[in-house]
Amino acid sequence: MDKNLFKNHDYEKIKDNLVSWLQERVETTGLEGAVVGLSGGIDSAVTARLAQLAFGENLLTVIMPCHSSSSDREDALKIANEFQMQVIENDLSDVYDHLLDELKSTGIKDGKLAEANIKPRLRMTSLYYYAQIKNYLVIGTDNWSELKIGYFTKHGDGGIDLAPLGSLVKHEVKELAQVLDIPAEIIEKKPSAGLWDGQTDESEMGFSYEELDQYILSGKAEPEVEAKIKKLASKNSHKVAPVPIPNRDKLL
């Protein structure tokens, strides 16, 4: 990958601009702060740190294990403790089990991805509970690379109020993380949505973030990689599009 595509940016300036953007967007709503889910990954760590710089004590971080890796919980706590963030923890495993049992009792079952996607949707329900009570917005962790191909759960991690990383590809998020003093082990951690044991972003996508970022920033990719990216982007385009509604003039 041509590192000049992202190495030459002024990441201190990007940090300051994103902090100001968050402050302006929240102020516009008349609300008071932010809620961020901490997963133990780089995107949530960077998002939480930006929100902390923007809102100080008016940031609530939430750790929500759901049959998750214990190392993810430990990494999330590491970020909260490193930067002295207000943090609460809710284990959603029992809630998930109960809901899944109820859903399967209807006789419609055996959908691995459908079952896995319940987890981020339960997490988002929890975040909005806290946000509404505290008069905060829910700040999402989706980056441009994920948004480009729809690599997120609809009404799960995609069901948010603001996406401050939405204009940065994964490698740019890594550069920003260094400016924000995110621990190196978090920056270099293999990206995973934690949907099931052993799941990683790149194995599920079928190409690397390096290949995806190169394509987004330069339009260049191996033909088979480009085809996979375009196929995913097309398949998941409904996730980023406004909800379709019929044209009133054609109805009347």
From TrEMBL:
One of its GO terms (biological process) is NAD+ biosynthetic process. It catalyses: deamido-NAD(+) + NH4(+) + ATP = AMP + diphosphate + NAD(+) + H(+). Deamido-NAD(+) binds at R121, K154, D161, H238, K239. Residues 17-239 form the NAD/GMP synthase domain. GO terms for cellular component: cytoplasm. It holds the Pfam family NAD_synthase. This is NH(3)-dependent NAD(+) synthetase. The gene is nadE.
